[in-house]
Amino acid sequence: MPVMNIIQAVNDALQLAMAADDDVVILGEDVGKFGGVFRATVGLQDRFGEDRVIDTPLAEAGIIGAAIGMALYGLKPIAEIQFSDFIFPAYDQIVNELAKYRYRSGGEYPCPVVIRTPFGGGIRGGHYHSQSPEALFCHHAGLVVVAPSNPYDAKGLLLEALASPDPVIIFEPKRIYRGPDHGKNWGTHPKGVVPEGAYRVPFGKAEIVRPLRGKGTAVTVISYGAMVHTCGHAAELAAAEGFDVELIDLRSLVPYDLETLVESGRRTGRVVVVNEAPQTCGYAAEIAALVGEHCFDFLEAPVQRVTGWDTPFPYTLELAYLPDAGRILDAVRTAAHYS
Fold first, then answer.
1. Is the pLDDT score of 268 beyond 80?
2. Is the pLDDT at 181 greater than 90, yes or no?
3. Domain annotation covers residue 84
4. Would you state the pLDDT for residue 188?
5. Quick check: is 202 in a domain?
6. Cis peptide bond upstream of 133, omega within 30
7. Is-above-0.70 flag for pTM?
8. Do the Cβ atoms of 168 and 116 come closer than 8 Å?
9. Which of 193, 219, 252 is at the close of a domain?
């Protein structure tokens, strides 16, 4: 099986989907001849033509509005929003139209649009190219929201999204798209073995990427996207101090895998939740609340959160903004030593 990075895995999934189904179309800014700003769609227009890989104007509301019309007509559109920071002009189309078509039509009109968008910091993009807005979309019923952390999941979740009758937003962690991280204590970038051919990663199923090893004080760490790798680095540092970290990759934010979270929280009694977005009303708050609600009698310490700061994303202080292994290790220590 080939070894791929996330960009290669996404491109492979798109190639497979378009070859298998003529109704699959791609639209977005620079996705055609240029192959996308991150090159995720490179080669697709040459192979499948301009009618199926469509370069659009810089108009996100128009991109999503057109995709909604395509889906209602019977196509399977994949809309790329070049950076997740640019998704806000399309917010009304997504949450007031796309998310609600199945409900408002009594189930008669599903709207199977897939939206791909890179999110998060780590590329020195400043505050217009580094945000993490996933929680804003998790709040709206009718949307599936996923965030892969590795090439295998990136391909499998995209193919699962294309099989879904409902709209899916895939937040892709651009910091780990293809090359080594350039920040301190961020862990390593993922490359991995990706099966040839089609396979699907189901929604609503988390993965325990580092199980307990039976040595030291047990602590659950929960995250998604690029932060999974930072948490993995923190888990290695924690092990050297006598803490046994069980690391969970959520993969799917809506729906989420409550069973895996609860089982782990009850098993360890100590939980740390990590996300890159600002703390206030971030997705980590929802997971912390769920763990507190379902594991209250088992917890040995309050659920800890490690997040970005409640400020606009900085350019010059990017390393200070993003959660790193040291901050996560501090939260593990706090949970383990709480009394």
1. yes
2. no
3. yes
4. 57
5. no
6. no
7. yes
8. no
9. 193
Contact 328, 234 (CB under 8 A): yes
Q: So what's the pLDDT on residue 310?
A: 95
Contacting residues for 201 by C-beta, under 8 A, at least 6 apart: 148, 152, 153, 156, 157, 159, 160, 251
Give the residue from 177, 170, 150, 300 showing the smallest Cα distance to 232: 150
Residue 201 lies in a domain: no
Residue 159 in tokens: 């193919």
- The domain of 320 spans 207-337
The string of pLDDT tens digits covering residues 69-85 is: 999 999 999 999 999 99
Neighbours of 130 (CB within 10 A): 28
184 and 221 share one domain: no
**CATH number of the structural domain spanning residue 221:** 3.40.50.920
8 A C-beta contact, residue 294 and residue 326: no
Q: How far apart are CA 134 and CA 122, in angstroms?
A: 17
157, two tokens: 């979740």
Q: Please give the Cα distance from 238 to 211 (Å, whole number).
A: 14
Task: Give me the catalytic one of 129, 189, 229, 233.
Answer: 129
Based on the residue annotation, tell me whether 129 is a catalytic residue of this protein. Answer: yes
Judgement on whether residues 126 and 216 belong to the same structural domain of the protein: no
Helical (H) or strand (E) element with 221: strand 217-223
**Token code pair at residue 77:** 């559109």
Query: HSE-up of 196 (CA within 13 Å, CB side)?
Result: 2
- Strand 168-173 vs strand 114-119: parallel, antiparallel, or unpaired? parallel
Q: Which of 59-68, 123-132, 182-191, 275-284 has the lowest mean pLDDT?
A: 182-191
Residue with tokens 């979270």: 261
Q: How many angstroms separate the Cα of 203 from the Cα of each of 86, 131, 214, 309?
A: 25, 24, 30, 29
